[in-house]
């Protein structure tokens, strides 16, 4: 078997401080192959952002490891880029669109001509070539999020991490941005880990959906999304298989809201199964 590009092994994160201890993530193990598009969905407060920050090297896990292309992550790796929900806070208002997209490239020690080329290509890829000289505050929310995506794309990451990137935009813009992500993924071959609390969005976008339990968090299910690769907001979302898959994830999330990681682990011990939705395997397979 080929080595996965991203490997998350036994990640646990407990926040301590101000006399409070919160075990946000209990025990998360999964891997992502090169070129995959995986969505992570879970109830509010399930530790999705905590997990993404651990993967991005922005937060140190209390236990467990994150490995990217065989190297342990212990700080932000050059091969990763993150797009956050709050585009308003992630763009510099005093810099033009072009300036914002170019900024992280300056760390890469590329010459000016190459930087300009990457900025131009990224803005073209997200459909913003004609506003390169505008300031973020002159653009709509959806356009600002496109700038944030262009900035991540220009950086040419191997893995693109996205933390509820479309939560703050209207439904129509959100649909357009979802299609933009699928088309960038096809065009660039980048590996994407996309966190969302929106069940429909996770099924529409993903090749796989990881369903998280309530905090302290474990993976309740690792579900393959067997929809055709060519997705379309109208046809895909109205197909019977889409309805089945979203219904299944919805049920899991309802269970997840009431089932914390410790409960799930107790169930695993009882049934010997490792993933919800799969047939339970006897703990001791001997006859
Ligand atoms: N810096 C912190 N210090 C202490 N506790 C924290 C910190 N950040 C997050 N938490 C706690 O960890 C748990 C998980 O939070 P996290 O933001 O990772 O969840 P989430 O799934 O991303 O939530 P949402 O979907 O609401 O954005 C919550 O109980 C939260 O209060």
TrEMBL record:
ABC transporter domain: residues covered: 6-239
TM annotation in the entry: none
Superkingdom of source: Bacteria
GO MF annotation: an example: ATP binding
PROSITE patterns associated with the record: ABC_TRANSPORTER_1, ABC_TRANSPORTER_2
Keyword Phosphoprotein assigned: no
Keyword ATP-binding: yes
Keywords carried by this UniProt record: ATP-binding, Nucleotide-binding, Transport
Annotated Gene3D superfamilies: P-loop containing nucleotide triphosphate hydrolases (3.40.50.300)
Pfam families: ABC_tran
Designated name of the protein: ABC transporter
Organism: Modestobacter marinus
